[in-house]
Amino acid sequence: MLEVHEVTKTYDDRAVVNAVSFDVQPGEIFALLGPNGAGKTTLIRMITDILKPDSGTITLNGAAVGGDLKRRIAYLPEERGLYRRMRVTDALSYYGELKGMSRQAARSAAASLLDRVALRESANLQVQALSKGMQQKLQLCTALIGDPKLLILDEPFTGLDPINVQLFEEVLQERRAAGATVLLSTHQMNKVEQLCDRALMINRGHMVLYGEVREIRRRYAGHAVRLRASAMPDSAPGVTSIAEINGEHELTLASDATPAAVLRALLDRGANVESFALSSLPLEDIFVRVVQEGVGLDRGQSGPPTVDVPLRSGGAR
Amino acid sequence: MKFSISRALTIARREYRTTIRRKAFLFSVLFTPAYFAFVMWMSIKPQVDEQVRALKNFNTLGVVDSSGAFASVPDEIRSEISPDENPFQRAAPGAAAPKAPAAATLFRTRVRVLPDQAAGEAALRAGQINQLLVIPSNYLATGKLRRYALKNNLFSSAEERPVSRWLVRALLAGSVDSLRIERAARPSRGMALYTLNREGQFELKDSSRELLDFLLPFMLGMLLSMCIVTAGQYLLQGVAEEKESRILESLLCTVSAEDLMAGKLIGLGGAALTLVGCWVAMGAAFSAPAALFAQLHFTPLLIAAMLAYLLLGFLFYASLMTGIGAITNNIREAQQFAFMFTFANFVPFIMMRAILGRPDGSLAVGLSMFPPTAQTTMMLRLSAPGSAVPGWQIALSLTLLAVTAVFTLKIAARVFRVGLLMYGKTPNLPEILRWARQG
């Protein structure tokens, strides 16, 4: 289990990561979310022991990260790079050797990983001869070689075609099934909804959301309703926007509006409502609201904000 | 993360193999010595050829003597180019160079006395004579002469020396005996120079040895510099390329910055040693003065000092280059920063004349104590003819270099650790100093 406790990192008297705490269970895919510049990369660099926190602790299965434990942590960074002039097999087995494998074991592991991502036929090519997508698959393999216990992936799906996206998802599920802890940092919220059990969102170094993905969506459900109506007014009190989706109307509610009050207002304005249901907001909309509208932040504080969604340290599903 | 020698060696192996398999490495091995040989050949050969050609074509000298001092002139001028002056001259057949040097090349010029300047100029224009020497009536009082030629070759004065000797012989002819005339024409031809050797004995300084006396310090200093600078360039390029191509982040998740830096120092230092080793081997195997190498006198002190300066100089420069590679954003920026440090390594060559002329002078001693120039200067001093560098100077120089190298290595490791993942603006000096403190 990965445990991050009260971790803080400061640059030039500015807290880039401020008292962040969370845990990720074995066999769990955990989302690390946040806008650009939120402090995600710094947090990941501290988890991978590239940077040292100013305060707080980071442990993996009870031991502080670093030392030989580093070999059990793999990281696929957003800014990807490979040795372009190396052969595919050599590049991959090099990472295996750096993780403490013998040369023979590294080459054997490299061969099976290349098989898994359908790169076997390119094994003897130079890396620079591969397409961008193939290089990305190779980069994933460099993270997977050595059977890491903690796998950190930063925007792994960027630039991949749908088939390779599916391949990456399958590989992640396989690692989860094998008991690995997976930390996924992405802006693709649909992937978070699809793959992740829990999520942490940070903004300007502070935790702003933390909990199960379903719980987060349920918490924000009250702010949107979906209805089917044959006659529909253009506006209504407490409604900030109306969108038509597949013959239904999705109404986004103002933060002080309640669904019952909105329904009453619609009926008063002559709407012929056939169906009415609370709509759970897509995670993407929650992300935007939290970042742009400061939802969940205690604006009375200049320091660390409070967290809107109750903290729940859920286990693996 | 603790430093791991096995990870460092894995990195070193990759760095070494990748570097020596590059086409650029093979190109450097083969073409750098060829390029230097070509440049030297191009700079010396035309001059020698011009000198030989000028004397070869100098068949007839016209003389108009209005002074009457050259009444009974020798009708022939003999001149020669010695093998020392013409390194391209082939040795005598069957001779094993350089023990049996080739004989001097002899040239003869006929002297034709002409009645006046007009006749002389006409003969020159008609091609009957190659040059015209006009000796005015007041020559003995003023020493002034006029020489006429059809072409003005700024770079050739080959004909001047034999004409001067002829003038001496002609002036003295009839006044003194022929032996004195010969001595007056070339008074110091047979002068032997004895200089104090390292053992404190006066030793005959022969002309063939002179080349070796120059070659040894130059060669050792240059090899040391090339090795250090090449390794530094490999490091600079390697770090800058890895930073530019964003490989480092995934690498640093697996290894520590110390593993990475140590691996690069070992691997790329080894690649530079291999490169210079290939040059030495090629030089010994193919160059004409191969036998000269056999005569070079490498003392144990010289070899030990060379190894010590090589190691410490490499550590110093390689650390600098690694740090520069880490703080810059791309290879072009890195090379701009590195230039001033690389240049310092070659400063002793610019001042070589002063250093070899006075190996124990204050300039030479000062440069051999200053870490950026210490290794090259001390190599020049140690191998300079007749130089006896005091032991305390070597010890002090090595100590200063070692302390500086270790200090630079530590600072570079800190800057390397922080700078590797910093992209965008190149840091200013205060920022670099802060990295050095915090890294």
Structure commentary:
The complex is a heterodimer of chains A (317) and B (439). By secondary structure, chain A is α/β, with parallel strands linked by helices. Chain A folds into two domains: 215 residues, P-loop containing nucleotide triphosphate hydrolases (Rossmann fold, 3-Layer(aba) Sandwich), CATH 3.40.50; 59 residues, no CATH class. Chain A is 31% helix and 27% strand. Chain A contains nine helices and 14 strands. The longest helix of chain A has 16 residues. Chain A starts with a strand and ends in a 24-residue tail after the last helix. Chain B has 439 residues and is of the alpha/beta class. Chain B has two domains: 269 residues, no CATH class; 134 residues, D-Maltodextrin-Binding Protein, domain 2 (3-Layer(aba) Sandwich). In chain B, 64% of the residues lie in helices and 9% in strands. Chain B has 17 helices and seven strands. In chain B, strands 2-3-1-4-5 form a five-stranded mixed beta sheet, sandwiched between helices. A two-stranded antiparallel sheet of chain B has the order 6-7. About 2% of the residues of chain B have low confidence. At the A-B interface, β6, α2 and α4 of A face α1 and α8 of B.
How would you describe this structure in keywords?
heterodimer; A: 317 residues; alpha/beta; Rossmann fold; 2 domains; six-stranded mixed sheet; four-stranded antiparallel sheet; 9 helices; elongated; disordered C terminus; B: 439 residues; D-Maltodextrin-Binding Protein, domain 2; five-stranded mixed sheet; two-stranded antiparallel ribbon; 9% strand
In short:
The complex is a heterodimer of chains A (317) and B (439). Chain A is of the alpha/beta class and 317 residues long.
Show the helix and strand layout.
The complex is a heterodimer of chains A (about 325) and B (about 450).
Chain A: E1 2-11, E2 14-24, E3 29-33, H1 40-47, E4 55-60, E5 63-64, E6 73-76, H2 88-98, H3 103-116, H4 132-144, E7 150-154, H5 162-177, E8 181-185, H6 189-195, E9 198-203, E10 206-212, H7 213-219, E11 224-229, E12 239-245, E13 248-253, H8 259-268, E14 273-278, H9 283-293
Helix pairs in contact in A: 2-3, 2-4
Chain B: H1 5-20, H2 23-56, E1 60-65, E2 76-81, E3 105-113, H3 117-125, E4 131-135, H4 139-142, E5 146-149, H5 160-172, H6 178-185, E6 193-196, E7 202-205, H7 207-244, H8 248-254, H9 257-286, H10 290-295, H11 300-327, H12 331-350, H13 352-357, H14 362-369, H15 371-383, H16 391-419, H17 429-438
Parallel strand pairs in B: 1-3, 1-4
Antiparallel strand pairs in B: 2-3, 4-5, 6-7
Helix pairs in contact in B: 1-9, 2-9, 5-6, 7-9, 7-11, 7-12, 7-15, 11-12, 11-15, 11-16, 12-15, 14-15, 15-16, 16-17
